[in-house]
Design brief:
- It is built from 6 helices and 12 strands.
- It has 248 residues and is of the alpha/beta class.
- Strands 6, 7, 8, 9, 10, 11 and 12 form a 7-stranded parallel β-sheet that branches.
- Helix 3 links the parallel strand 7 and strand 8.
Length: 248
Amino acid sequence: MRRFFVETTELTGSTAVISGSDARHIKTVLRLKPGDEIELFDGTGVVCSARIQSFLPKRVKVELVGKSFLTTESPVHITVAQAYLKDNKMDILVRQLTEMGTSAWIPFVSERSVPRLDDKRLEGRRQRWQKIARESLKQCRRGRGLQIGPLQTFRAVLETAQTSDLKIIFWESENRPLRSLVDPPQPDRVVRSVFLILGPEGGFAIPEVRQAMACGFQSISLGPRILKAETATVAACALIQYIFGDLG
């Protein structure tokens, strides 16, 4: 069934209105008709089954026929702090991390980050990332959206992570494997939130890793091969979801 995003206020009554590009998509691309059923979601976990009532100028009016809550969210809250990457790599990561079930994403500037954006360009990028995350929700059937934070400094990222149960910085010069965190098993240990920091194309500077470890982060390796920055981020999230979440 086709899914479309609406604001939470649209799901409070018996009818809702879809506008913008989704309305155009319904009418001109999908060519749906009155009586056809669709799903609406608001990014908070609520999903409503709906039936198209009528087509208005630039809008589609639907009847809400059922409301439920999606149960596809991971049991572990994963926050990814990503050093700013070049080109469109950040756009791709937003889509992939949404699909992976990541809860929050924080871009930051590290010592070796190459792009330096002004405030206007940063706001434009952030709006684009939010749109990408929202579109990804339609495909992966998540109920909650990826929370995208503003661009931060490395120090601010370390401070943000302090309440997390587990804090990891992935570093290509580290030898300690991820399995060392769970081997031997610790039956009494409960991990509900994990904070991951991943670096830019050039990796982290040694002082940054030392600073993170002084703030309670554990330095971990992703294996003997050097991964591209964007590959490392997806691999790290997949492994954390496998160990502590619901992947596999």
